[in-house]
UniProtKB/TrEMBL annotation:
The gene is ffh. One of its GO terms (cellular component) is signal recognition particle. The keyword Cytoplasm applies. Keywords: Cytoplasm, GTP-binding, Hydrolase, Nucleotide-binding, Ribonucleoprotein, RNA-binding, Signal recognition particle. Composed of three domains: the N-terminal N domain, which is responsible for interactions with the ribosome, the central G domain, which binds GTP, and the C-terminal M domain, which binds the RNA and the signal sequence of the RNC. This is Signal recognition particle protein.
Length: 447
């Protein structure tokens, strides 16, 4: 799941992270591609619109973290938008099973969604992790095979199973299950309701009356992630009739496009509590928004890099620089400060080590282009060999001064010229940005 989306977003990020400067046009193009990538992953259109708007808003409003490249900051912004979409950073909902025993958990969903399998997986989890005594009960009176399947699974995972009695109505079985739970000292009773191949009134009415008599702590809808937007539609319809408390998405191990998983929370407002990741009884992962977003983007290292940089940024210095920029001033001392910031991050080596895909070949390419730690130190040395006056007014740097500086810092005059040129380009860029008064990442410089 998500492979195609991961690849497409990766393509967008590769284009961005390779640059030191992002223009507004670059950001627009990236947003268009992100939009297409999400739509192709079968994410619902209103959801896509919201996410893209959020990313744009942040890319414009975000403070620039100067120690990282703007493209890397965009990766972090997209990551955060995905986390929000999935319910927010702290979204690890777990299960509510506290209360006077036996606590009921009602399982709802269409036939074939993985409801019975998930009931057994939950029972196993509650027993193994939460140390609860669990009773499984099948309420599928129309399909004896479904009851037998649950019985078999209960035996497999080693939890209690309510004996099947012929010709009992679902509501009565539910009552019997709660009674048995009470008498036999069970903590949790999991009620596996009957599913149909499509939503119908009988199924809803039955589930509703079961909920009325058992007062479940959790009413979970099980939905098949491979069915895409149909799963989202199903969840909406169920939620209109049943007070659902959460969702379980099954077959996350399949090769679906992932749109259901991404749209579900936003469309229904319900937390995704678990993900089914295999047919086996232990194939159930607790949902974690941040982990899933990280998996989708596949750029966890960049995200932590930017988080680290954001913490390291010296707010005072940043404000001072912003003021200077607004006035169109950015001198060589400021440039040196930028290098210092980079060094604080463990230098280029440290930063490159944190980036995925930074293989040997890429590293030697960068080294050939002079992009290594030595370069950082060399640039700093050049600036330190200048007088304060020269640093503040680089335009006074003529041939004889350059020669002196080159000798003082152990480099060639060409190296000094390169640095001056780089500084001039940065200063021009910042002047433009300052004039336009436009904030955000577009048009800003990275590291
Ligand atoms: P129900 O009709 O909703 O009770 O669905 P079942 O629990 O019988 O599941 C239908 C099929 O899907 C079974 O073959 C399960 O083994 C399979 N299944 C359920 N959950 C998952 C999952 O998360 N991953 C995979 N690969 N298969 C699953």
């Amino acid at each position: 799941m998500f492979d195609a989306l991961t690849e497409r977003l990766g393509g967008v990020f590769d284009k961005l992270t390779g640059r030191g400067v992002l223009s507004e046009k670059d950001v627009d193009a990236a947003l268009r591609e992100i939009r297409v990538a999400l739509l192709e992953a079968d994410v619902a259109l209103p959801v896509v619109k919201d996410v893209v708007a959020k990313i744009r808003e942040r890319a414009v409003g975000e403070d620039v973290i100067r120690a990282v490249a703007p493209g890397q900051q965009v990766v972090k912004i997209v990551h955060d938008a995905l986390v929000d979409l999935l319910g927010g950073e702290g979204e690890q909902p777990g299960l509510m099973v506290e209360g006077e025993p036996p606590v009921a958990i009602l399982m709802a969903g269409l036939q074939g969604s993985g409801k019975t399998t998930t009931s057994a997986k939950l029972a196993k989890r509650l027993q193994d992790v939460h140390k609860k005594k669990v009773l499984l009960a099948s309420l599928d009176t129309r399909r004896p095979a479904a009851m037998e399947q649950l019985q078999q699974l209960a035996g497999q995972v080693g939890v209690g199973f309510l004996p099947i009695m012929a010709n009992q109505r679902a509501v009565d079985i539910a009552k019997r299950a709660m009674n048995a739970g009470k008498l036999q000292g069970y903590d949790v009773v999991i009620l596996d309701t009957a599913g149909r191949t499509s939503i119908d009134e009988d199924m809803m009415a039955e589930a509703k009356s079961i909920a009325d008599v058992t007062r479940p702590r959790e009413t979970l809808l099980v939905a098949d992630a491979l069915t895409g937007q149909d799963a989202v539609e199903t969840a909406k319809r169920f939620h209109e009739r049943l007070p659902l408390t959460g969702l379980v998405l099954t077959r996350m191990d399949g090769d679906g496009r992932g749109g259901a998983a991404l749209s579900m929370r936003h469309v229904t407002g319900l937390p995704i509590k678990f993900l089914g990741v295999s047919e086996k009884p232990d194939g159930l992962d607790a949902f974690d928004a941040k982990r899933l977003a990280g998996r989708i983007l596949g750029r966890g290292d960049i995200v932590s890099l930017v988080e680290k940089a954001a913490q390291d940024v010296d707010q005072d210095k940043a404000e001072r620089l912003a003021k200077k920029m607004a006035k169109g001033k950015f001198d060589l001392d400021d440039l040196r400060e930028q290098f210092g910031q980079l060094k604080k991050m463990g230098g280029l080596g440290g930063i490159m080590g944190m980036l995925p895909g930074m293989n040997k070949a890429a590293k030697s390419q960068m080294a050939a282009a002079g992009m290594d730690d030595r370069m950082l130190s060399r640039q700093e040395a050049i600036i330190l060999s200048m007088t304060p006056q020269e640093r503040a007014k680089p335009e006074i740097l003529k041939a004889s001064r350059k020669k002196r500086i080159a000798a003082g810092s152990g480099v060639t005059v060409a190296d000094v010229n390169k640095l001056i040129k780089m500084h001039r380009q940065m200063a021009d860029m910042m002047k433009k940005v300052g004039k336009k008064g436009r904030g955000g990442l577009a048009g800003m410089m990275g590291g």
